[in-house]
């Protein structure tokens, strides 16, 4: 008779300053042992909209990091209708913010981090800094531990640090806009002049395109905002200044408007 080898039990580190421990009943297992510490989920308060297991891997200080599907979290946490409504409203808002704002997941703890200085690739994670007792900085571009002096706007000193979006802009093919008079060799990809989002024209309709991130409309040909372009041209005619050259830098989004 054989038995399956049991996987070592995962445990939380009680000294982990990023977690809050409580002794009340477990909402999932219903275990109510008062001598057992339980980690309280507060991901939404920390700006997270993706749920990852914070348990430590056996014999290491590395977190599991496995993603928990929201359907499982909702089911196992036994949320009331009111709690579920609040939870999902906050979740949707955070997901939209992550998509449309300057947020990325820290490579050390996967916490959602906002970049305060849009021109500096060196970003400090306050969670990892507090947990390790020293400044934890990573590269916004390659998502590796920061190497080299700071601030920097183009790359860190990691050999593999490259701007993938900029490479796409530099190497993309040219295209023609079928319904725009006199436009036959325009780069097929453009970075929005307002927020830097890389966009592709579907080659139909007029030359103006609405950015899916910042919702600002601009001319795909001359890269001017639509009202400025239309002062000297029209939706279906070549721009006065012709086709703007390939972009060699990506605009930073100044959401304050200043």
Please give the share of residues in helix.
10-25%
**Helix/strand order, N-terminal first:** EEEEHHEEEHEHEEEEEEH
Total helical elements? 5
What can be said about the biggest beta sheet?
2 strands, antiparallel
Number of domains: 3
Estimated share of beta-strand residues: 5-15%
First and last CA, distance: 74 Å
Characterize the quaternary organization of these chains.
single chain
Structural class: alpha+beta
Q: Determine Rg (CA atoms, Å).
A: 24 Å
Shape: elongated
- The total of beta strands comes to 14
Uncertain runs are 1-10
Largest sheet, order of strands side by side?
Answer: 1-2
Mean pLDDT: 77
Structure description:
This protein has 258 residues and is α+β, with helices and mostly antiparallel strands. It has 3 domains: 8-100, no CATH class; 102-162, no CATH class; 164-229, no CATH class. Helices cover 18% and strands 15% of the residues. The chain has helices spanning 70-76, 81-100, 126-132, 164-171, 226-229, and strands at 20-22, 38-40, 51-52, 67-68, 103-105, 112-114, 122-124, 137-139, 174-175, 186-187, 189-191, 198-200, 208-210, 217-219. It has a two-stranded antiparallel sheet. Strands 3-4 form a two-stranded antiparallel sheet. A two-stranded antiparallel sheet has the order 5-6. The termini are far apart. The model is unreliable at 1-10 (pLDDT under 50).
């Amino acid at each position: 008779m054989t038995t399956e080898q049991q996987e070592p039990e995962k445990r939380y580190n009680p000294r982990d300053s990023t977690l809050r421990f409580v002794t009340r009943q477990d909402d999932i297992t219903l275990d109510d042992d008062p001598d057992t510490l339980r980690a309280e989920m507060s991901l939404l308060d920390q700006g997270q909209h993706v749920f990852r297991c914070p348990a430590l891997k056996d014999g290491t200080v590395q977190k599991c990091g496995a993603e928990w599907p929201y359907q499982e979290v909702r089911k196992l946490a036994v949320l009331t209708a009111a709690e579920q409504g609040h939870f999902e409203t906050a979740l949707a808002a955070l997901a939209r913010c992550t998509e449309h704002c300057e947020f990325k997941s820290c490579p050390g703890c996967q916490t959602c981090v906002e970049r305060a200085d849009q021109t500096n690739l060196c970003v400090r994670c306050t969670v990892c800094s507090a947990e390790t007792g020293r400044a934890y900085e990573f590269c916004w571009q390659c998502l590796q531990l920061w190497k080299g002096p700071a601030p920097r706007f183009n790359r860190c000193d990691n050999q593999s640090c490259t701007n993938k979006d900029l490479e796409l802009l530099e190497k993309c093919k040219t295209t023609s806009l079928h319904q725009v008079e006199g436009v036959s060799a325009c780069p097929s990809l453009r970075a929005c002049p307002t927020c830097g989002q890389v966009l592709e024209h579907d080659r139909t309709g007029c030359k103006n395109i609405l950015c899916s991130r910042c919702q600002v409309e601009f001319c795909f040909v001359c890269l001017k905002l639509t009202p400025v372009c239309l002062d000297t041209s029209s939706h279906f005619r070549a721009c006065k200044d012709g086709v703007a050259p390939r972009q060699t830098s990506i605009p930073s989004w100044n959401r304050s408007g200043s």
